[in-house]
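Aim 2 progress. For Phage virion morphogenesis protein, the working sequence is reproduced below.
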Amino acid sequence: MSVSLRTDFSDVDRLQTRIGRLANPDRRALGEQLGSLVESQTRRRISEDQESPDGVPWAPWTAAYAKRRHGGHSLLQGEGNLMDSIGFDVQDDHVEVGSNLIYARIHQEGGEPDMAPGPAGIPARPYLGFSQDNLAEIEAVADRWLDRHLEKS
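Predicted C-alpha coordinates for this construct:
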Protein backbone atom coordinates (compact mmCIF):
# COMPACT_ATOMS: atom_id res chain seq x y z
CA MET A 1 0.00 0.00 0.00
CA SER A 2 1.30 3.45 -0.82
CA VAL A 3 0.27 7.06 -1.29
CA SER A 4 1.60 9.30 -3.97
CA LEU A 5 1.55 13.03 -4.36
CA ARG A 6 1.76 14.68 -7.72
CA THR A 7 2.49 18.36 -8.02
CA ASP A 8 1.24 20.38 -10.96
CA PHE A 9 3.06 23.66 -11.49
CA SER A 10 1.46 24.48 -14.83
CA ASP A 11 -0.31 27.56 -13.43
CA VAL A 12 2.76 29.00 -11.71
CA ASP A 13 3.74 31.15 -14.69
CA ARG A 14 0.23 32.60 -14.94
CA LEU A 15 0.19 33.23 -11.19
CA GLN A 16 3.61 34.91 -11.31
CA THR A 17 2.37 37.17 -14.12
CA ARG A 18 -0.69 38.15 -12.07
CA ILE A 19 1.40 38.81 -8.97
CA GLY A 20 3.87 40.81 -11.06
CA ARG A 21 1.04 43.17 -12.06
CA LEU A 22 0.83 44.23 -8.43
CA ALA A 23 4.41 45.55 -8.55
CA ASN A 24 3.39 48.75 -10.35
CA PRO A 25 -0.36 49.17 -10.07
CA ASP A 26 -2.00 52.38 -11.25
CA ARG A 27 -2.59 53.71 -7.75
CA ARG A 28 -3.58 57.13 -9.06
CA ALA A 29 -6.61 55.62 -10.82
CA LEU A 30 -7.64 53.88 -7.60
CA GLY A 31 -7.15 57.12 -5.66
CA GLU A 32 -9.35 59.00 -8.15
CA GLN A 33 -12.10 56.38 -7.83
CA LEU A 34 -11.94 56.32 -4.04
CA GLY A 35 -11.72 60.10 -3.75
CA SER A 36 -14.76 60.54 -5.96
CA LEU A 37 -16.69 57.96 -3.93
CA VAL A 38 -15.82 59.51 -0.54
CA GLU A 39 -16.64 62.98 -1.88
CA SER A 40 -20.08 61.68 -2.94
CA GLN A 41 -20.60 59.98 0.41
CA THR A 42 -19.73 63.21 2.23
CA ARG A 43 -22.02 65.33 0.06
CA ARG A 44 -24.85 62.84 0.63
CA ARG A 45 -24.25 63.04 4.38
CA ILE A 46 -24.63 66.85 4.22
CA SER A 47 -27.57 67.03 1.81
CA GLU A 48 -29.64 63.97 2.70
CA ASP A 49 -28.56 62.06 5.78
CA GLN A 50 -27.74 65.04 8.02
CA GLU A 51 -26.14 62.76 10.56
CA SER A 52 -22.62 61.94 11.67
CA PRO A 53 -20.78 59.01 10.10
CA ASP A 54 -21.74 56.90 13.11
CA GLY A 55 -25.45 57.63 12.56
CA VAL A 56 -26.09 60.34 15.18
CA PRO A 57 -28.55 62.94 13.81
CA TRP A 58 -27.23 66.49 13.70
CA ALA A 59 -28.50 68.95 16.29
CA PRO A 60 -30.82 71.61 14.89
CA TRP A 61 -29.59 75.20 14.66
CA THR A 62 -30.05 77.16 17.86
CA ALA A 63 -32.46 80.09 17.49
CA ALA A 64 -29.68 82.55 18.36
CA TYR A 65 -27.31 81.16 15.73
CA ALA A 66 -30.01 80.83 13.08
CA LYS A 67 -30.70 84.58 13.40
CA ARG A 68 -27.12 85.67 12.77
CA ARG A 69 -26.05 83.09 10.18
CA HIS A 70 -24.79 84.59 6.93
CA GLY A 71 -28.02 85.79 5.39
CA GLY A 72 -29.84 82.71 6.63
CA HIS A 73 -27.89 80.43 4.28
CA SER A 74 -27.81 76.76 5.09
CA LEU A 75 -24.92 74.39 4.62
CA LEU A 76 -26.53 73.57 1.27
CA GLN A 77 -27.53 76.92 -0.23
CA GLY A 78 -25.89 80.15 -1.19
CA GLU A 79 -22.44 81.22 -2.23
CA GLY A 80 -19.63 79.43 -0.44
CA ASN A 81 -21.78 76.62 0.87
CA LEU A 82 -20.19 73.66 2.57
CA MET A 83 -21.58 70.94 0.35
CA ASP A 84 -20.27 72.51 -2.85
CA SER A 85 -16.85 73.03 -1.26
CA ILE A 86 -16.26 69.30 -0.64
CA GLY A 87 -13.48 67.98 -2.86
CA PHE A 88 -10.63 65.50 -2.91
CA ASP A 89 -6.92 65.48 -3.63
CA VAL A 90 -5.04 62.33 -4.61
CA GLN A 91 -1.52 62.01 -3.19
CA ASP A 92 0.99 59.22 -3.83
CA ASP A 93 -0.15 57.07 -0.93
CA HIS A 94 -3.46 58.55 0.23
CA VAL A 95 -6.51 60.61 -0.71
CA GLU A 96 -7.61 63.69 1.21
CA VAL A 97 -11.30 64.64 1.22
CA GLY A 98 -12.58 67.83 2.80
CA SER A 99 -13.39 71.50 2.47
CA ASN A 100 -11.24 74.61 2.33
CA LEU A 101 -13.97 76.85 3.72
CA ILE A 102 -13.02 78.70 6.88
CA TYR A 103 -16.15 77.57 8.70
CA ALA A 104 -15.88 73.89 7.72
CA ARG A 105 -14.05 72.89 10.90
CA ILE A 106 -16.53 74.52 13.26
CA HIS A 107 -19.35 72.49 11.70
CA GLN A 108 -17.33 69.29 11.91
CA GLU A 109 -16.21 69.74 15.52
CA GLY A 110 -18.61 72.32 16.94
CA GLY A 111 -17.62 75.14 19.24
CA GLU A 112 -17.70 78.88 19.54
CA PRO A 113 -17.07 80.69 16.26
CA ASP A 114 -14.61 83.59 16.59
CA MET A 115 -16.97 85.97 14.85
CA ALA A 116 -19.99 85.18 17.04
CA PRO A 117 -20.80 87.59 19.81
CA GLY A 118 -22.31 86.11 22.94
CA PRO A 119 -22.56 82.57 24.25
CA ALA A 120 -24.28 80.93 21.28
CA GLY A 121 -22.08 78.03 20.23
CA ILE A 122 -22.42 75.74 17.26
CA PRO A 123 -22.99 72.06 17.98
CA ALA A 124 -20.84 69.59 16.07
CA ARG A 125 -22.37 68.37 12.83
CA PRO A 126 -19.75 65.84 11.71
CA TYR A 127 -19.83 65.31 7.96
CA LEU A 128 -16.33 63.90 7.43
CA GLY A 129 -15.65 60.28 8.31
CA PHE A 130 -16.81 56.81 7.41
CA SER A 131 -19.90 54.85 8.34
CA GLN A 132 -19.86 51.07 8.10
CA ASP A 133 -21.80 51.35 4.82
CA ASN A 134 -19.23 53.87 3.53
CA LEU A 135 -16.40 51.48 4.34
CA ALA A 136 -18.20 48.61 2.61
CA GLU A 137 -18.61 50.76 -0.54
CA ILE A 138 -14.94 51.75 -0.44
CA GLU A 139 -13.85 48.15 -0.03
CA ALA A 140 -16.06 47.05 -2.94
CA VAL A 141 -14.55 49.71 -5.24
CA ALA A 142 -11.01 48.73 -4.20
CA ASP A 143 -11.79 45.03 -4.73
CA ARG A 144 -13.19 45.68 -8.22
CA TRP A 145 -10.13 47.79 -9.09
CA LEU A 146 -7.83 45.01 -7.90
CA ASP A 147 -9.79 42.35 -9.81
CA ARG A 148 -9.65 44.40 -13.02
CA HIS A 149 -5.96 45.05 -12.51
CA LEU A 150 -5.16 41.38 -12.00
CA GLU A 151 -7.20 40.28 -15.01
CA LYS A 152 -5.45 42.53 -17.54
CA SER A 153 -3.77 40.60 -20.27
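The first strand starts at residue 87 and ends at 90. This observation will guide construct design in the next reporting period.
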